[in-house]
Write a structure and sequence with these properties.
It contains 2 helices and 23 strands. The strands form 5 sheets. The protein has a 7-stranded antiparallel beta sheet. A 4-stranded antiparallel beta sheet has the order 8-9-10-11, with no helix packed on it. The N terminus is likely disordered.
């Protein structure tokens, strides 16, 4: 999100980047220096037209090639309202046009944004060749993960923002009707919120179908497993249980009737197998 970009930018010393291009629209063949961010780390990018040299911020001797794992790198030039974003390959070749905001490439695609007024942006999706495959119509787009990206539309300040999801072809496969959708996992499931009340969370698949109805107060995915912790409020009490990736509630006495999800999670992690399953 833009917040993470701003935080990363604050980490960079102004003296270190004295002479960086600021407030200038960059021509395709210009030599330049700019910023790049990858996996939460900041880099300096020097483009000569023949190659792109990328070094870690504060360590000019450390050339970083790992930032090109996706074959493209997002570069920012300028500051504040004048900042612009574009993407390059290892040779410094640019793809697509300049944008007012751009994410990191994920699964060959990247979120791009255009400013429509001082505070608002509209987002689309660009592929690695610079082609816009999703028009600039959303108020936010998450990075692609497991073939899906969560999108939002509507004014969040007025409580009108709703979430849905698109596939890598840009098709809106999950309608924009949820309060929130978390990223889809490798099993093709995502946690959704249908409202702000208690017991309003469930699970959907990549077709937008409800696998687990909205009946839980909280659902937690257990990393490296096939399981979710589910917490439900019933009157003045709270109960916790386990759901597998098929949406089935596990009823084993060993893993039921817990009032504290932290205790249940500790038990699960003690009994989980290397393949993510449990006894």
């Amino acid at each position: 999100m833009r917040r993470s970009v701003k935080i990363a930018s604050m980490i960079l010393s102004a003296n270190l980047f004295l002479g960086l291009l600021g407030g200038v629209t960059v021509k395709a063949n210009d030599s330049l220096r700019g910023y790049a961010y990858k996996d939460g780390k900041a880099y300096v990018v020097e483009i000569t037209g023949k190659e792109a040299k990328v070094v870690e911020a504060g360590n000019a001797n450390k050339v970083s090639s790992e930032v090109f794992k996706e074959d493209r790198l997002t570069v920012r030039v300028g500051e504040g309202d004048s900042e612009k974003y574009f993407c390059i390959d290892k040779e410094g070749k640019r793809y697509g046009e300049e944008y007012d905001d751009m994410g990191e490439f994920s699964e060959g695609l990247v979120r791009v944004g255009k400013r429509i007024n001082k505070e608002e942006y509209r987002y689309g999706v660009m592929d690695s060749n610079g082609k816009l495959i999703v028009p600039m119509k959303y108020t936010w787009i998450d990075d692609f993960l497991n073939g899906m990206a969560v999108v939002r539309s509507g004014d969040a300040n007025r409580g009108a923002s709703k979430a849905g999801a698109i596939d890598k072809n840009g098709k809106e496969v999950v309608p924009l009707k949820y309060e929130n959708i978390y990223s889809f996992n490798k099993y093709g499931l995502a946690i959704v919120s249908t409202g702000w009340d208690d017991n309003s969370k469930g699970l959907i698949n990549q077709k937008g179908e409800m696998v687990v109805s909205s009946q839980y107060n909280m659902i937690y995915e257990i990393d490296e497993s096939e399981l979710y912790l589910a917490e439900k409020i019933e009157g003045t009490s709270t109960t916790c249980g386990l759901i597998n990736y098929k949406g089935e509630l596990l009823t084993s006495d060993k893993y039921s009737n817990f009032e504290n999800y932290a205790d249940l999670k500790m038990l699960v992690l003690k009994n989980i197998k290397d393949d993510g399953t449990m006894d």
